Each structure stands twice: as structure tokens, then as C-alpha cells.
């Protein structure tokens, strides 16, 4: 695989997610989304594995960093099954699963929701034709 950066970047290694309450957010990512907790570290960090990408939950240290995160898109095999399960857990969705694009080999479906800290997240599913 070639890279354009010239420094050897090959994949995303970690994503930081701003949270107001690390324990509350850690419970959401572990208990509701089912991600594996890797470890917690002082002064209030939590790290999760998401298919080889590490998610770090942290409180913003400076006001300019205190804002919701970028949207993380979690791939699920069956978005139609995942949606009602998360809704039953109290997850607040922005919309229902909907078709985004018809591609050559599959249809791309998405739905958007908020975590316990009001960060925007999404589920995506590539449905074979």
C-alpha cells in the first residue's frame, strides 16, 4: 500500500473523543455500543478498541478544544437490527436507517445518533445486493 504523506501513515491509530463525564461516556461506549474497554488511565482517560482503532475518551483540557467530536462511523453488519437494539437502550437517533447510495456491489445505509456527551455518531452498513 502506498502513502501520500511520505512518513509512512497506513491507517488510523487513535481517535480522541471529547466528553464532559468520562465515566458516563465510558459506560455508554462499553455497555451500550459494546466496545471493548482496553484500559483507563489518570487523570480520567478511557481507551476502547474499535476494530484495531483505539478510541480515547477525555475531557477537553483547554476551552478551544471543548466541543463535540467529528462524526465516527461505526460499521455494523445489519443496520436494521442494530437500530432498534440501540433505541431500546435509550440511544437518541437523529433519523432512521436510510439508503445513502447504491453502489456496484452493495447499498450503503446510515443512521445518525448522539452519545451520552452529545457527540454525533453514525452507524453504517454495506448491504450486498
How does this model look, in words?
The protein has 129 residues and is an alpha+beta fold. The protein has a single domain, classed as Roll (2,3-Dihydroxybiphenyl 1,2-Dioxygenase, domain 1), CATH 3.10.180.10. The chain is 16% helix and 40% strand. Strands 5, 6, 7, 8 and 9 form a 5-stranded mixed β-sheet that branches.
Q: What number is the mean pLDDT?
A: 89
Number of domains: 1
- The assigned structural class equals alpha+beta
Q: Please give the alpha-carbon distance between the first and last residues.
A: 28 Å
Task: Briefly summarize what is shown.
The protein is α+β, with helices and mostly antiparallel strands and 129 residues long. The chain is 16% helix and 40% strand.
Topology:
Elements lengths: L13 E5 L3 H11 L3 E6 L3 E6 L2 E6 L13 E4 L3 H10 L3 E2 L4 E5 L3 E9 L5 E9 L1
